[in-house]
Amino acid sequence: MRITHETLLKIANDTVARQARASRQLLAAYLCGSLLGGDYLLGGATDIDLVFIYTEAPAHEREIVRLTDEVHLDIAHHGQRDYREPRRLRVHPWLGPALNTCRVLYDPQHFMDFIQASVRGQFDRPDYVFERARKQAEQARNLWLELRGLRGELLPDQLKLYLHSVEYAANSIACLSGPPLTERRFLLTFPERAEAAGRAGLSAGLLGLIGAPRLTGDDLSEWLIPWQATYRSLPSEQTPARLHADRLTYYLSAFRALIDSDQPIAALWPLLRTWTQAVSLLPSDSAHRRAWWASLDAIGLSGEGFAERLQALDVYLDMVDETLESWARENGVWEG
């Protein structure tokens, strides 16, 4: 299939039309994600992000539908009650930005007209921007607090919490000038958001938190083989949608494109995140853990190195808080 913007939009509209015929409970549907912009392909692969809203709570929260190796549908299923306070949605750090920019594809009862108008109303007002950013920073700090008493061997679930904390911290800065960062382009986009916040140094700090300065593109290329082996070994019945088998090419093509670019280290974030989550789904004695452990040793995220990174994350979160407070004062959210 030749992948063009027009082709993907037609698939999105056709998918919504089929669901509308199949389910009387479908209230509305909208398109979000990378397809709304021009930079929707990475490594020749992409997904089509759709949200279906139903009058009742849906049976499944998310599903992946393969179209080709390079393209799949990523469909979120929401209940109407998720949107019951539309004006509060404008300060939701994830749903707010999505609703602000989404393209409505199905809305016979004008439900989304009201929701979107409520969200877009003064969406960029400084106090609302600050509220979205503040919520991300609070999540980051809460996760750090869960980890600070860590004793013994680092487990995959604990590294997942660490990476989530780093993600929230970066997104608290990113949300001052745009929507949350997408996973595949996380390290590509963050520098410009940090600079927009007047804290360009936070970009280097972020790389340090995940061990990027220790790596080269060749190191990352070598990791692709064990990453694939781990991904392919996941039991389908226990695997979350984001690691669905039909998303392998979506990730792998992006990794290769990033590694071959002038910013190869940008592949580290999505690779490490997906690898860590995949390993967490496997038995503790799985042979696939050995290569993952070796990667952590290489970037200083194991043993004493992880304890040092937790301390560094504490300092980084303080810098994030200071940045938000400074931004709030400069934009009239706080006085003084």
Structural account:
This protein has 13 helices and 5 strands. With 336 residues, the protein is α+β, with helices and mostly antiparallel strands. It has 2 domains: 5-120, Beta Polymerase, domain 2 (2-Layer Sandwich), CATH 3.30.460.10; 126-229 and 251-321. A 5-stranded mixed sheet has the order 3-4-2-1-5, with helices on both faces. Helix 6 runs parallel beside helix 13 (304-330), helix 7 (186-196) packs antiparallel against helix 8 and helix 9 packs parallel to helix 11 (268-280).
- Beta-strand percentage? 5-15%
Summed up, the helix count is: 13
Q: In which range does the helix fraction lie?
A: 40-55%
Give the N-terminus to C-terminus distance in angstroms.
58 Å
Which structural class best describes the helix and strand composition?
A: alpha+beta
How many structural domains can be distinguished in the coordinates? 2
Q: Number of DSSP strands?
A: 5
Largest sheet: 5 strands, mixed
- Give me the Rg, rounded: 20 Å
Strand order of the largest sheet: 3-4-2-1-5
- The H-and-E topology, N to C, reads as HEEEEHHEHHHHHHHHHH
| Mean pLDDT level | 94
- As residue ranges, the low-confidence spans are none
**Overall spatial form:** globular
